[in-house]
Structures are given as C-alpha cells and as structure tokens.
Design goal:
about 525 residues, mainly alpha, 2 domains, 19 helices
Length: about 525
C-alpha cells in the first residue's frame, strides 16, 4: 500500500496553525478569556494543583473522573498564573492531533485537491462551537483526538489483505486504551469494538501468530499507561480510594435522570434502544451535533466501492458499541456525545469528493476556485465569531467577574479556607490561587446517594472551619457566618441562552465582630 496518507510540510503546518487559532477563539481556557467558568474544568484543575502540592485525588480531594485527567491537569497547573493557560496548551495539542489524523484518514482513500484542506478548519469551527463543547476542557474534548489516531489505524488496515493493523500500531493502541480507561472508562468503547473485529479477522485469515503478537503488544502498551497510575496510588496508600471513587461510586451512584424508564427497563431495549434514543434526542436539541452525526453515517454508507464493505462493517460495529457504552443507562449529560467527533473523516470524505468533482468541471476557472477557497476560510471565521457561545467573555477584564472580585477579599486572610457550598467549583479556588483544605471541596452530583459529602461539609461549617463560603443563595442561615457580598455575572451555558448567574460570599464571624455586634 502506497503511503498516500503522508502529509506535506505545508499541510501539516496549515492544520496545526488553523487548529490552534480555532481552539484559541473557541475555548475559554485560552489567554483571550479571563477564566474558564465551567465547574467541571475547574474541578479538574483544582485537583491537578492539589497533586502538585502533595494532595492525592479521591483520598484528599474528592472528584469523580479518572486519575489520568487529574495528573495531566497537574502538569497544566505548572504553567504560572491563575489561569487555564496550561490547559489551553493541552487543548492546542489535542486539536492539532485531531486535525492531522483526520486529514491523514481522508488521504487514505482520496487524493484531495489543493483547496480541500480548507474543509478541516471549517469543520473544526463547527465542532468547537457546538453548545456541547460548552466552555472547553471536557474529558471528551481532550480524548476524542486520541480515538482519531486509532480510527486512522483501523481505516488503514481496511486497505490491507488481512484487514489487520501493523504490530507497532497495536502497541500504540494499547497505550491509548490505557490512557482512555484511566480518564473515563467508557471511552474505550471504540477500541474494544475494533479489537473484537481484529480477533474475527485474524481467525478468518488464520493469522494466529500476528494476532498473538498484537495482543501482547496491546497489553504491553496498556500496561505502560496503567502501571504508573497504580504505583502512584499504591505509594500514597490510596488504591482503595481510587477504586471506590472511580469505579464503585460511578457505577452505582448514578442511577437516575434522563427520561422515564418504562419499557427501557427491558434488557434488550435497554441496551440497544436507550443509546440511540438519546443520540436522537441530543441530535434534535443540538442541531450542529445532529448534522455531524448524519454526515458521519452518510459518509460510511456512501463509501468508495473498493473498501465499502470493510469500512461499513467497521463503522456499524464501532459506532453501535460506542453508543451503547457512552449511554448505558437513562442518566446522561449533554456533553457525553462529544466523544463521537473522532468520526470526522467520514464527513470530510463526502465534501472532498464533491470539491474534486467541482474542480474537474471548473479546471479552466482558477479564479473561481480561488474565490471558493477564500469563501471557505471566511465561513470558518464567521462561524467562530458569530456562533461561538463563549464570545461574550472574549477579552473581558478579570476584575469584572465574581471569581476575581471574591478573590481580592479572600486573599486578605493568610492561608484562607473556602468552600463552594451547594455549587460545583466555578473557579473560585483558581482565581484565589489556593487549593482546598478538605476532601469534599464542592458540590457534586451524588450527594443524595453519598451523604458523607454533605455530612462532612455541615460539620465543618458548624465548627467555623472555613473562612469563606461561596454559594448561589443569600438565604442560608449559619450561626458562624454572615452574608458579606453578592455578585452577578452574565453566563451562557450549554443551553445557549445568555442569563444572569448570582454568587454569594459568606464570611466567618470572628470574635471581635461578635463583640462589636
């Protein structure tokens, strides 16, 4: 097989630069924004900063995602400043990887015209301005680029005689699988489905020796990603905390939400109908997501004849398993579907072929082709400027948002202890440049089934442990605390509607203040 998928230096540079520019405008982690206000992203970075200061995830700082996500954010937190600059660098790397491997996948099956590469920033603009992207720095956003690498290997294998990847690719897939498993274990769905296909193809072609070699290298790669994680928690005597928080609590304390169970409680319907019902609902609510999913399916169905059967089997099996493991129960969150974006090459192929066809018919009109190429770039820019839901925060002074306003007050006390009560970590720890001093540092989604969180927070509040408490409501009554300040700020969340969010700062009543009163 000729290596037609290799990129030229110009292609590589174009993809990297365009992906960096797009993520810089789209993500609130970039230097263009004062702060990423999303609670999930702030939880990740808060735990990451805690790791650098010797705290251990789950044992000292309770959160629910995988340890790799926190360890990576610990590296990001090494970038100086009270911002998400380190995370922005990580996002740039992830989006660049996604762009490069998506385009390499396209070049496996078609020789694109010179202007076709302009489709990549156009589609990236659509993907990174989806409302399910939210503010940036979701686990899904950081991980689907890794799956685009595995998809490239899988598509490349369909052009070989035995439909199997190279041995070194098996090792890389193992590393990626390990990283994904310890970030969010449902992310390995695509790889699990592809491994099943590899076993079937190996048996059909009697490639047992290669199969065993692939299995060995895959396990070695997965171990390379897994052993450091286990060792880290073993050295810190926190393996039990890891398995309780990451596996048990996630598996058994998230059992409600979404839509009524009804017939969906039936085993067969549950495992097949629920995932696709959810995708349908999300596709209707989030139009750009729905369009992208339809383009992925269309690209797989109307594939080129020579590879159509193999590619279609790959798509159907992996897409189905990915849907089943991404949405295994009626509880789901909107951004879960973002993981499907690694299927981008299927959508790109449709339009690359259309452009090739158009270019053949207009081969004598170079001027028109140049105009169309420029139009694609302009459309990409307009999508970012007009459709990005985070645009209201671009270049906004940090002094105008509640996180930094409260930080000015909080920093007046040496080594302050704060709690975000009944709300998730919305950036107050980041803005103040401090790490939490207790395990349950914010609200999570499992308080109803895991009462230890509210019990510990309530006990510490009664003891006057915190210097400040931050929450949404101004009607909390605590003996040791008084309402000190209220701030409002505009916010545009995943619903796409601009609204007002209200934060209240409660301050510990000191002995001198008691006497004055």
């Amino acid at each position: 097989m000729k290596e037609s998928y290799k990129l030229t230096k110009k292609e590589f540079l174009f993809l990297i630069v365009s992906s960096i520019l797009i993520i810089t405008v789209a993500s609130t982690c970039s230097p263009l924004f004062p702060l990423n206000p999303w609670d999930d992203a702030n939880c990740f970075l808060t735990v990451g900063r805690g790791i650098i200061k010797g705290q251990v995830p789950y044992r000292d700082l309770y959160e629910q995602k995988g340890p790799v996500l926190y360890l990576v954010h610990a590296l990001c937190s090494l970038v100086p400043g009270k911002s998400f600059t380190g995370v922005w660098i990580l996002e740039c790397m992830a989006s660049g990887l996604f762009a490069v491997y998506s385009w390499k996948s396209v070049k496996l099956f078609v020789k694109p015209s010179a202007i076709s590469i302009g489709l990549v920033p156009l589609f990236l603009s659509v993907i990174y301005t989806m409302r399910i992207f939210n503010y940036g720095d979701s686990a899904e956003e950081l991980c689907f680029p890794l799956l685009s690498v595995v998809l490239f290997y899988a598509l490349k294998a369909t052009k070989t005689e035995d439909n199997l990847p190279e041995l070194k690719e098996g090792f890389v897939c193992g590393i990626i699988c390990g990283l994904l498993f310890w970030t969010k274990y449902t992310f390995i769905a695509f790889i699990a489905a592809y491994c099943l296909l590899i076993i079937i193809y190996s048996i059909c072609h009697r490639k047992f020796k290669k199969l065993f070699s692939l299995i060995g290298l895959f396990i070695a790669g997965a171990a390379l990603a897994t052993v450091p994680v286990i060792l880290y928690f073993a050295v810190n005597n926190a393996v039990g905390d890891l398995f309780t928080a990451y596996f048990y609590n996630n598996l058994f304390l998230y059992n409600s939400g979404g839509f009524k169970a009804g017939i969906y409680s039936m085993p067969v319907i549950k495992h097949f109908a629920i995932p696709f019902t959810i995708l349908y609902k999300l596709g209707k609510e989030y139009i750009k997501l729905g369009i992208m999913l339809l383009l992925f399916i269309a690209g797989a169905i109307f594939f080129e004849r020579r590879s159509k059967k193999r590619v279609l089997i790959l798509f159907i099996v992996t897409f189905t398993v990915t849907a089943m493991l991404t949405f295994p129960r009626i509880f789901f969150i909107y951004y879960y579907a973002f993981i499907f974006m690694f299927y981008l090459p299927f959508a790109l192929l449709i339009f690359v072929r259309l452009i090739n066809l158009m270019e053949k018919k207009l081969k004598d009109s170079k001027r028109l082709i140049s105009i169309l190429s420029g139009a694609v770039c302009i459309i990409s820019i307009l999508i970012l400027l007009l459709l990005g839901k985070n645009n209201y925060l671009i270049l906004k002074p940090a002094s105008e948002i509640p996180q930094f306003k409260f930080a000015e007050e909080i920093k007046k006390i040496g080594n302050p202890k704060i709690l975000t009560f009944d709300i998730m970590d919305a950036g107050f720890y980041t803005a103040a440049g401090i790490t939490p001093s207790n395990r349950f540092f914010c609200f999570l989604n499992i308080e109803k089934d895991y009462p230890a969180i509210l019990e510990e927070q309530g006990r510490l509040i009664d003891e006057g442990y915190y210097d400040y408490i931050i929450c949404y409501d101004d009607d909390f009554v605590w003996d040791n605390y008084e309402l000190y300040r209220v701030e409002e700020t505009p916010v545009c969340d995943y619903s796409g509607k601009l609204m007002t969010e209200r934060f209240c700062l409660y301050k510990l009543i000191t002995a001198s203040e008691d006497q004055t009163t």
